Amino acid sequence: MDQRVAGGRVVTDPKAEEDRPADGAGQGIDAALVEEALRGRLEAFNQLVLRHQDHLFGLVYRLVPDRDQAADAVQEAFFSAYRNLSSFRGGSVRSWLGRIAINAAMDLQRSRRRRPSQPYPELEDDTWQPAAGQEVEPETKALAAERSKALARALADLPYEQRNCIVLFDVEGYDYAEIAQIMRVEIGTVKSRIHRGRLALRSALAADRELFRG
Amino acid sequence: MDRTAPAAHAEHDELLIARLYGGDVDDAERARALGLMADCPECESLFADFGAMADATAAIPVPPRPRGFSLTESDAARLRRKAGGRLAVFGPNLRRSLGGSLAALGIVGMVLTSAVSFMGGAAGTAGGYASSGDRAAALPEPGATMAASSPGEQSNTGAVSLATAAPESTSLMGPGNVNPAPSAGVPATNDNAVTPPVASPPAQTGQLAVSSAGNQGAFSGNGTSAQTKNVPGTAGSSGPDARLVWLALFAALFVVGLAVAMLPGRRRGRDRGARA
Fold it and tell me: For the whole model, what pTM was predicted?
């Protein structure tokens, strides 16, 4: 089954998503590129980079609330992937790269425990706004921007262990066992981090609760 | 429906609602959580807020990446070198453990060897100046040839001459009865031996001539019997040379352990997850 239900929501399993027939061709391309890269063709590896860098940057950016740090983590993840290409045992390259990137982000978080002075600074930058469809009302767009800013600040205030678990569960769609495996902790620890993280997040957003309703 | 007043919400288990949202409840807990949500509007809105936050988290916009992450030829060459070097040695964790153990073993060995050496040296020194009471246990065997100590035989360098009245001694040596041959296992001549400041009286019948061979050994006699005993620290397999060898070995072990532990390694942490 490609989807699971959590909290009345349908969460798409990223691995199942990759197994869809539509992505079968993508996986085949990835596998071929890995083989070429293993033969020493750097261009093949860089093709993999081009195919997955946006996804990995988006993933890491939610874990590391700083664009430059996130970029550093993604770069380090690709370095690590290149070094360990021979240890790739098949399966989804996207998932494999995602795990490497998550670990790179966690290493970065451990080494830089200090919280950035201004998390998600891009959200405060009026010169950059996320792309929105033409059909979106200006009021809705402004509300969404405010909501994102408030949530980003609250997420950045969470301990990174809780933030990582919430992002991996809610955004990336990993289940508890997968997160436990990635983070190398007990599954009960993952559950506790997610549940308590949600409560902490809600408390932090108490003043902005109206942004999330309606 | 008679719903609980908001004031009562403080007593409700919010964590249970969070667990319900995460699908981490058994049947009994699910029933209890659903009961709370049915009775308490705060619990109900808590559950709804969890959903809104999760949706908003997924919708947090991602800015454009600041740069591309393609590898250059120099990056690839550097990474290939690292990978090759990594395979040549143990993993960093194992290497650190191994190196630390070797270094610790080296330190312990050096300390123990030094301690034994110190104690042996002290014993040897004490033996060299042993009193007559202590000398009883360190006598030459009966009939063993003893180095003479008499005014005429002071050429036997290193001999410690101790005079003890022993008229009944059976192993007496008269003046001129010199036999410089060493007794078994003990050299008769030692250039480093100590001669006590007490002048040795002229050897005569009934007087036991005691010769010390070795700077850490002592021969003495009580005039009634004679036996040989190796004093701890005397020359032999555990002598100063052997201890020096052991000390050097342990020092080498320590240095090798430090070198192994401090070998430059890769940043393994960032490779976690790469070994799928």
Answer: 0.55
